[in-house]
Each structure stands twice: as C-alpha cells, then as structure tokens.
Amino acid sequence: MIGLDRHQENSRRTPAWRRSARIVGLVLLAILASFTTPSAAASVTLKVESEEGLPGFHRVDLLRFLVTQMAAAGLADWRFEPADNNGSALDRVEWGFKLNPYAGGEVRNLTHTLVYERQYGVRRPITIEVRLYLNGQYQTLVEKQAIIRGGPDDPELASVVATVTQSLLGPTGAYRAIDVGQRPTQPAR
Amino acid sequence: MPFLRGALSAVVIVAGAILGSFGGAAAADEALFERDRFSGDWGGVRKEGQDAGIDFGANYVAETLSNPSGGFKQTTIYQGLLDVSLTLDLGKLLDWPDASFYIDGYQISGRGLSRNGIGNLLAVSTIEALASTRLHDMWFQQEFLDHRASLRVGQIALDDEFYISQYSAGFINSTFGCPDIFSTDLPSGGPCYPFATPGARFRAAPIANFTVSAAAFNGDPAPPGPGDPQVRNASGTNFLIGQGGWFTIAELAYVFDEEPVSSSHLSGIKLGGWYHTAAFADPRRDTLGLSLASPASNGIPASHSGNFGAYLIVDKMLWRRPETATQGLAAFLRVGGAPADRNLISLEVDAGLTFKGLFPNRELDVLGAGVSYGRIGFARRLDRDQVLFTGIDRPVRDYEAVLELNYSARIAPWWVLEPDLQLVFHPGGFTSAPPPAPVSQPIPNALVLGLRSAITF
Prior knowledge:
The complex is a heterodimer of chains A (189) and B (457). Chain A has 189 residues and is an alpha/beta fold. Chain A is built from 5 helices and 5 strands, in the order H-E-H-E-E-H-E-E-H-H. Helices cover 39% and strands 23% of the residues of chain A. A 5-stranded mixed β-sheet of chain A has the order 2-1-3-4-5. Chain B has 7 helices and 16 strands. Chain B has a 16-stranded antiparallel β-barrel.
C-alpha cells in the first residue's frame, strides 16, 4: 500500500510538475520568440532603398536591379521590394555607393563619347555600404569594395550585390552574427 | 563644283552608314538603333570575350569638308579614319591583378583640307593626317594602391590624357583636341595624333576628385631627316627612345562639381606644365645675334637649350537641366603659353560654350560654339625684318584664329552625325599665299563647311 500510495502520490504530483514545466516552457518560448530571428519565423519583406545613385542607372531601374540581384542570393527567409520613398519603411535595406578615387586613365576617343557615357563604360573601384533596419531600428551594416563597370549588364556588379546580400542576411552574415552574439564570420571587405 | 562634290560626299557618308546598318541587322539580337555598338554583341561572343578579359573595339570616322571661299584653293575633301583597338584585362586572362594591355592602330584615308586647301596652322579636322596604316598606342598598365595609382609604359600618345577639356572634345577642329601649341611647337608635332611614342606615365588619385599625372616621352616621334615626319615614321613602329631629347609633362586636375546620381564630372580645373630637353631654334635671330633677315646674318639660327610651357584648363557647367545628369549649358577655357623666342605659337587661348539637350527629344545632342586663338611668337618680328631689309611689302604674321559651330546629333548610341561650320581667320598666321599669288597677298580668310559621321562598331 505504501508503495502504491507513493506511486499514487507520485502520479498525482507528476501532472503538477508537468503543468509547471509547460507554463515555464511557454513563457520561455514566448520570451524567446520575441527575440528570435526571422529565419525561424515567416519570411520578412524588406524594402530596398538607395539614396545615392549608381552610374548607368536611373533610380527606379537601380532599385529594380538591386531587388532582382538580392533575390538571386537565394535567402528564403527574406523577401525584397523596391521602396517608394527613402526612409519610410520600418523594415528596409539601404544601399549606398561611393565611387573611389580612380587613376586608371583613359585612351583617346575618336567618336567623342560624352563624358557620362565614357565613365559608364570604365571599370572603376567602388565602395558599397548596406545598412539593415528592422522595425525602424538600425541593426547592422556590411561594407565591400569592388571593381565594377556599371549598368544592368555588368555581371560583376550583379555578383557583388548578391554577395553583399549574403554577407548581410545569409546564414553566416552580419545580421545572424548579431543574433548569436558573434562578430561576422566574413570580414566586411 | 566644290559644293556639289561636298554634297555628294555627304550623301555617300549617310547612305553608307544606313546601308551598312541594314547589313548588320541580319545578325541583330536587339533593335539596331538601341544597341551600344553597330555590330551588336556578335551573338554573345563579344560579351564572352569581355568576361574573359578580351575587348575588341573599332570606330570609323568619315567626313567631308569643303572651303567654298578663302584658303589658297577652294576644294572639297573626303577623309576617313578607322581605329581598331584591343584591350586585354590581364587580371582575368593571366590572373595578374589590376594589369592591362592596350593596342590600337589607325587606317587613315583621303586627304586633309588644311594641307590641301587652306594652308592654316589650326588644322580643321582632328583626323587630318597623311593617308597611312599605322600603329598608334601599345602599352602595358599596372594599377596599384586600390586603383588610386597606375603606371603606364609603352608607346603612348600625349593627347590620350593630357591637356583635355571635356567640353571642347566634341569639336572637329584639331586644336580643340591636341592643342596647336603642341602640334605646332614640338618636334614633328609631338606625341599627338597621328603619333604615339615610347614613354611612361604615372597617375595617382590620392583623394577624391583630385588627380596628379606625370609623363615622360621620347622627344621626337619621327627619326631625323628631310621630309614630312609622318612619312619618316610612316607606320608608327619606329619605337624611338631618346630621339630628339625627352618631353616631360605634369598635370594636376581637380573636379569641383560632380553630379550626385551619376557621379559625372561637371566642372573641373587642370593646371599643367611641360619641359622639352632638346635644342630649339630661334625663329628670328642667328648665332651672331643678328636678324636672320639681315644680309649680314650667317643664316644659322641661334639655339635655345630646352623648351617649356604651362597651361590652365577650366570646364564649368553653367546651368544643368533639373533631374538630368549632364544636360545643360557648359563652358570651357584653355590657355597655354610658351616662350616666343623658340616657338611659332607662343600663346593659345580656346574658349567655348556647349549645350547638351537643347531641343525636345534630342537629349544627347550637343550644340557647340568654340573659338581658338593662336598668337605667333617672334616669327612675326622676322617678318617685319624681312619687310625692312628687302623693301618688299609682305604680310606680317600675327595670329591665327578659328570660330567653329558644331552640332553633334546622336542618331543611335553607336552613330553620331555632325554638321559643322568653321571660319578660319588669318590662315597660317597671316602668311603669304603660295605662288602664283604675289608675295604681298596673304591667304584669304576661309569658310569651311562639313559633315562628319562617327560609328562605333
């Protein structure tokens, strides 16, 4: 009897422990869920912005190009759309482009190509800076230098946009590094 | 008759371009008038080559020019220039980072109007040269310090990178390209079109918008001897080193206005200086210090050790149409000087205005008006001496000037048509017309009408 009583007592106590464990677990889950990454939840749509332009693009075309190449990075947890206005979206990625000083030089041009077009055709070093904002809060940035020709047909530009997107939002990217309390595994260059 | 021949040549240029375009359309992979280049992407071969580090280029410039009045003879000419180039990206081809190789050659046809009809110094066309097939540039370039510096070594042309105004480059008169103060004063015209010569160029961009360039060239692109230097170096393959001394040049460039979206340079200033180590003959005095026109002269010009000069170039966007990258009104000014005691032209001033996108739906067309003034150095004193000593009245050289009106019509990304008008004042600096004209008669001021077609293949 004693053994049975003990068993019964144990069996009576067990549901109470389980209930407590469940409650604690749910609370913890709720707390954790509020901090968890979007990768563990549904995909997040980021608006893509660029305050500065890039040689070879009109602004609207640039945003479309960036969205296409960011999608090509193959990150299932993130979706990208061109922003209507800069700085208005809570969840957004801001792209910045800065042409570096360049001393590569020229050759004589007999067809009098206009300056804008001449620059467009030259491979130039550029610094790309991408900032991530979620819920209106700045999260992190990735900076990269590249050599590009510019324009929508430049495979190197397309490649570097996809690479920077991976560096920012990919499984080993800067944003995930924040999430696990580490610095980015890939240097920002 | 000259007008008729000019019109005929113009028709040939336009018809040739149009017929040629239909020929190329067969291989079209995109609309003919929307391609960047006339021959398109060669079914993807061109892009594959570029991705692999091999880039072919070809331009053909054809023009007809006529001087219905003025000059020493009224005539109409046709001139053509085919420029074929190859650029190798050695980083892609040989895994040699930031290194490149460039070579280009010219096939020049026809005859020049300045040489055959006007007799002026500021040649009326940037492509005027003796008919020939010649090597132009052939150089290796290494970039370093994150592309902020580069060293170029090989056969190089001065007018690739130096003394260039971005707003004057669209004019047809040659002085708006390589300035006459170089092509007239330097031995054999210096390393300017159609010449390139062995040399080395260093360029650095230490901070944004600021560039410093310096170069050293072989002093004379043609070997010594009688006759035209373009005949003495007929193929561009002499590869002379140390011939006729050395020509050195340095230039500082600062861009002070940049369009924010496209990063196009809108306004900038350049300051340059040059030095040539060869000996230069005095245009007036002999070795005894007497005028070369004097009967007591020994006829041997005094020699000056070295030659030098300085220049200033200002490009300024005066008004930019809102929400456009480069459309609007722009101005340029180029001023260059050299000692009058050893140079035929001692001062050159070029100035002009251009308006891009003046007419609706013609956003890439450029209307331009430019003037160039070249002052004759102490050669004018020799002319005065000649009048004094001989007692024969003859023109005294003072200056030559050109006024040019040009409209550059972008028919397609690969095709530009340019109707052009030039007025040449004091051809040859106000020199005597060739026989049988009397020596007292200067070459009359000339009117030049022309049409140029430039196609990028």
